[in-house]
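Exercise: predict the fold of this chain.
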Amino acid sequence: MEIWSAWSTEKNSKIAVSDAYFQLQKHKNKEPQIIFLYCSATYDSVEILKELNTLAPHSAIHGGTSCLGVMTENGFHSNNGLGLGMLGLYDPGGHYGVGYAEITDNARLASTQAISAALEQCECPGQVPAMVWMTAAPGAEEDVIQGIQDVVGTNTPITGGSSADNTVSGDWKQFSNNRVLDNAVVITVMFPSSNAMFAFHSGYEPTEKSGIVTEAEGRIVKKIDHKPAAEVYNEWSDNNISDYLEHGGNILSITSLHPLGRQVGAVSEVPYYQLAHPDKVTQDGGLSLFSSIEEGEKLVFMSGTKNSLVNRAGRVASSSLAAHSTPADQVSGALVVYCAGCMLTVQDRMEDVVSGLKEALNNKPFLGLFTFGEQGCFVGGENRHGNLMISVLTFTK
């Protein structure tokens, strides 16, 4: 297993992808079996993918757009909202396949089609991969996970992130081999020759404030403990969203340090949480989220700091190794999913985030993307979609 990263912040789309790919080739004159490609939505995605297919005609390609740019072991790469990164993986003893499907009115069915296509591409139909990596348009990630599990079961770890843009305006894209898509799910199945290790965490702690969802519809929580959800959140947050209670509005940036958590499980009586990020107050006093919530669920008011968000990425990477008793000197490389909301909150300290990851991963190559939703597998084996979270997939030599 050999892994190399590359990046560019060139303005011209063709030059950016060419520069990055030639960085990969400087390491080894080998065409990667699979290239993970992520870039800001301000690039011409069609031109980028066309050029990469010309440069690496035999490589499978999986990717999408990432908020503002990317990060690698060489730093945080964003120049006025432009940034592109690649992770090339060369593993002659392994098998990797990429498949996609458009999301129409049935995301669950789309993901079954995408993973079936991925298994076909690597000539492993009917087999269960060691790992699944996904990139999807935001909006139905829970159904996408269900669809994957319909095909490979619930014991296969799923990691990945939802595509993003710079302004939450819907300009996100997904890449699958030679296709650029805007409302699809792209899935890679992995049968690596070495170990693939994972971890899924957040940089937030639970508070004593909590309530039961008594009315919800999809990704809108209407009432908590029979009271308007926005009013309850406002009380919990010491009137942080009081200006939005009467007319509603976007609260995305002011709720980044205080998401809502749902307990998924516990290790040694220490609970772990799946987070949901409130992004709007609705006209009728509800809360719009980036994750689906069901009536009867208990929501916990979570709390984080800039320091916790900066330090957590490295700890999650270390956790991926510790969970499998793997020393850092055995790392070959990694894929890192870091929530765009977290990145925007600590943007002036992203080099510290990179430093923490470099230390945890023994200075090996990694590619980090900034997403509008994070998917991962918790320590208890639960595959989940969350917000304001960090997901790390690490490969050994």
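Check your answer against the key: The longest helix spans residues 306-322.
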